[in-house]
């Protein structure tokens, strides 16, 4: 009976993780599509130091490795495959965070395949390079995952 309960819980967490990944992907791609559609009206100052502006970033965070070309696309594809494997193999408690990370990684991989190795960045914060919702999901999922691992290591 206990084993059946664990399997069911594991299955629910996998389903939740995949739903989170799909949700992050859809919202990310929709937001990028909207920004691309409204490009003629940009930049838009939202509030304070927050702005919306269309940028194509061929690098990774802080535009590093912008000249890496196809190698960067391959690297991102390897990351997507690795996060997918981790999601399937990890203990169920880590799966939702991995799902959020996966959704963001797939969103950026799709951009790189569509836009010649670049991702669509559009959120600008004063003094910070522009980013997108996929980047925010990857960062948030990673923070949650690290906190969960640290909490589990204390127990």
In short:
The protein is of the alpha+beta class and 155 residues long. It contains 4 helices and 4 strands.
Binned, the helix content reads 55-70%
Largest sheet: 4 strands, antiparallel
Q: Average pLDDT across residues? A: 92
Measure the end-to-end span: 25 Å
Q: How many domains make up the coordinates?
A: 1
Classify the beta-strand content into a percent band: 5-15%
Strand elements, count: 4
Low-confidence stretches: none
Radius of gyration: 17 Å
Helix count from the secondary structure assignment: 4
Structural class from helices and strands? Answer: alpha+beta
Strand ordering within the main sheet: 1-2-3-4
Order of helices and strands: HEEHHEEH
What is the overall silhouette?
elongated
Oligomer: single chain
Q: What does the model show?
A:
The protein has 155 residues and is an alpha+beta fold. It has one domain (2-154). Helices cover 63% and strands 15% of the residues. It is built from 4 helices and 4 strands, in the order H-E-E-H-H-E-E-H. The chain has helices spanning 2-37, 70-89, 95-114, 133-154; strands spanning 44-47, 50-57, 119-125, 128-131. The chain has a 4-stranded antiparallel β-sheet with strand order 1-2-3-4. Strand 3 (119-125) and strand 4 form a beta hairpin. The longest helix is centred in the N-terminal third of the chain and has 36 residues, at 2-37. The protein starts with a helix and ends with a helix.
